[in-house]
Amino acid sequence: MPRAKSKGSSLIPHPSSLTMDEYLLPFVLIAIVFFAAFEQTITGFGFSLIAMPLISLVLGIQTAAPLIAVTALTLYVVNFIRHREAVVVSEVLRLGFALVFGIPVGIWALSNVSESAIKMLLGVLLIAFAYYSLAHFVSMRRVSKRWGYLAGFLAGSLGGAYNTPGPPLIVYGSLRQWEKDEFRAALQTLFLITGIGTVASHALTGRLTPVLMFYAYVLPALVIGIAAGALVDRWIDKRVFRALVNGMILTLGLSLVFNLGK
């Protein structure tokens, strides 16, 4: 499937120049976004972990990053509204403070580090996160709140570069032994903060406008995915579903690492 070019207004091909494969591109994007939104609504995380590597394989990192940023922000707004009453303000403020400083670092990396290196790092991140999740590692004691500053900074950096702020936050929340509702609410709030900062940074650097056509394609799929996930949430065995998702994340990570440069 052809990739869109990564610079300038040529990022999105003109409809009159599309080949048959390029006509299929919107449907591929729609399928990816629908499943990722469906999964995030059920488990509370994972949208970017699924959508970012898959869309990067189709469009390339430079195009996927701003597209996933604005799409994910829409999802985060909806989920924040759903879970806002369970937010623990003290934890969110600590993580959010450090997170804001990490976002520009990630945006800088996206602009100055080669796409091959970014794919390798993203692949390694996905593999490490999937291993952590599948191993069900749990600390014997709660870690100090001071680790929140490091977790927040790493989340901001990963959010700015790859739209994947989740892994450091999920590991920190697990080691702090957050309750289920507190966990989900904190993640949605911090994802929202990261999303706002990342989208604003892409807009300021001129990366956002060229992907708005793709955003228009996938927005209905995002909404339907959220609705479908909310509808079937009570009927799904979340442990089995999350294990399947983590297996997919591991496969995506391995694909990015071993297909480096192809």
Order of helices and strands: HHHHHHHHHH
Strands, count: 0
Helical residue percent band:
over 70%
By DSSP (H or I, 4+ residues per run), the number of helices equals: 10
Count of distinct structural domains: 1
Mean pLDDT: 78
SS-based class: mainly alpha
Strand content: under 5%
Q: Main beta sheet, described?
A: none
Which ranges are low-confidence, i.e. pLDDT below 50, for 5 or more consecutive residues? 1-20
Q: What best-fitting shape do the alpha-carbon axes yield?
A: globular
Report Rg.
18 Å
**Distance N terminus to C terminus?**
13 Å
Structure commentary:
With 262 residues, the protein is an all-alpha fold. It has one domain. The chain is 76% helix and 0% strand. The protein has helices spanning 20-43, 47-59, 61-83, 89-112, 115-135, 147-162, 166-175, 180-204, 212-232, 238-258. The radius of gyration is 18 Å and the shape is globular. The two termini are 13 Å apart.
Q: Layout of helices and strands, plus pairs?
A:
Layout: H1 20-43, H2 47-59, H3 61-83, H4 89-112, H5 115-135, H6 147-162, H7 166-175, H8 180-204, H9 212-232, H10 238-258
